[in-house]
Write a structure and sequence with these properties.
- This protein is mainly beta.
- It contains 1 helix and 16 strands.
- The protein starts with 9 loop residues before the first strand and ends with a strand.
Length: 248
């Protein structure tokens, strides 16, 4: 990454004991099966996405129902926890009318983890959607992660959205390149149930965050993509965040 503002990541965690050093963002929640069998150095991919950021998004028709007996988890954010087994480096730069995000995450631990970076069951699986979370201080978080159902309101269980994941084996590094349109509003599955903050135009400050869950979290395969199968895994999600970057 040529002009990178790289950042060792900090982990917002509830249930796992993965670590990293760096900046930590707020956490709200949660490839294919063949990815576990990739050869060494085959965890490198370039995924290009161009989001429609013209309006807030929300869950729509025909997502899969929540499995019977699955409780709605608490919406409270987990306390930050430091760990050294995961390292995230991210770079955000302007790219025409939008932004180019490059990131690298390394698993220095002894067990596999699942990166929450393969889209979701509502907006499409595969390349991985980038969500937009404007902050009160004017910073925008570009994220790939899972989300919990809104507390005490919002969509019922049949409107639950489950994120796609890719496996990162011990000692491996995954590298991704993402392209997003200039954001105009909050973008995530339950956006309308949360406070809205304006997005600066032009955007001057941003950072990237990535969700991570345990490698043994329950999953199923949907349209060729490995997908988290319960809300407990989303609730136990950790959030790796790079340092905020000033955008020229």
């Amino acid at each position: 990454m040529s002009t990178s503002a790289t950042a060792a990541a900090l982990v917002c965690a509830a249930a796992l004991t993965l670590t990293a050093g760096g900046a930590c963002g707020a956490s709200g929640g949660a490839n294919d099966a063949a990815s576990a069998n990739r050869a060494p150095n085959a965890d490198r991919a370039e995924n290009r996405t161009m989001n429609d950021n013209s309006r807030p998004t929300d869950a729509g028709a025909n997502p899969p129902a929540t499995p019977a007996g699955t409780p709605s988890p608490a919406a409270a954010d987990p306390a930050p926890q430091s760990d050294s087994q995961l390292e995230l480096k991210a770079d955000i730069r302007r790219d025409g009318e939008g932004f180019r995000i490059e990131y690298r995450v390394t698993n220095r631990g002894s067990r596999p983890v699942l990166l929450v970076n393969r889209g979701d069951t509502e907006y499409g699986l595969g390349a991985g959607r980038v969500y937009v979370e404007p902050q009160a201080d004017g910073t925008v978080q570009f994220t790939q992660r899972g989300y919990l159902l809104p507390p005490d309101q919002g969509p019922g269980p049949t409107a639950a959205v489950y994120p796609g994941v890719s496996e990162l084996a011990p000692g491996k590094t995954a590298t991704e390149t993402l392209r997003v349109a200039a954001p105009k509003a909050r973008q995530h599955p339950y956006a309308r149930h949360f406070p809205q903050h304006p997005v600066a135009d032009p955007l001057r400050r941003a950072r990237f965050c990535l969700g991570v869950v345990s490698g043994d979290a329950p999953t199923r395969t949907t349209r060729g993509t490995r997908v988290l199968a319960d809300f407990q895994s989303i609730a136990a999600q950790q959030l790796l965040c790079g340092e905020p970057q000033e955008l020229n």
